[in-house]
Amino acid sequence: HCCYINKTAPTEELLKTHDVWINGVRGDQSAVRKAMQVEQPAPHNTIRFHPMLDWTMKQIFAYIREHQLPRHPLDAKGYMSIGCEPCT
Length: 88
Prior knowledge:
There is one protein chain. By secondary structure, the chain is α+β, with helices and mostly antiparallel strands. The protein contains 3 helices and 3 strands. The protein has helices at 2-15, 31-34, 57-66; strands spanning 20-22, 39-42, 46-49. It has a 3-stranded mixed beta sheet with strand order 1-3-2, with no helix packed on it. The chain starts with a helix and ends in a 22-residue tail after the last helix.
């Protein structure tokens, strides 16, 4: 119910006014995500776009280094995916 209130419901409203939903899921995170396509139909006649679906952890770290991106503090504690507090 937490994710519905904090993610799903607000996203539903946004999708009513946008054409594309871009998110950072990767296929190596779960079997469900591995089965996803780079572009998929989404609610309200939008497209869900997963530009990093086929990225590996090695590619993620190379991108972080190349672009000198700051690291999330939980990354140093071993978290592989960082979401809301209850899910993380």
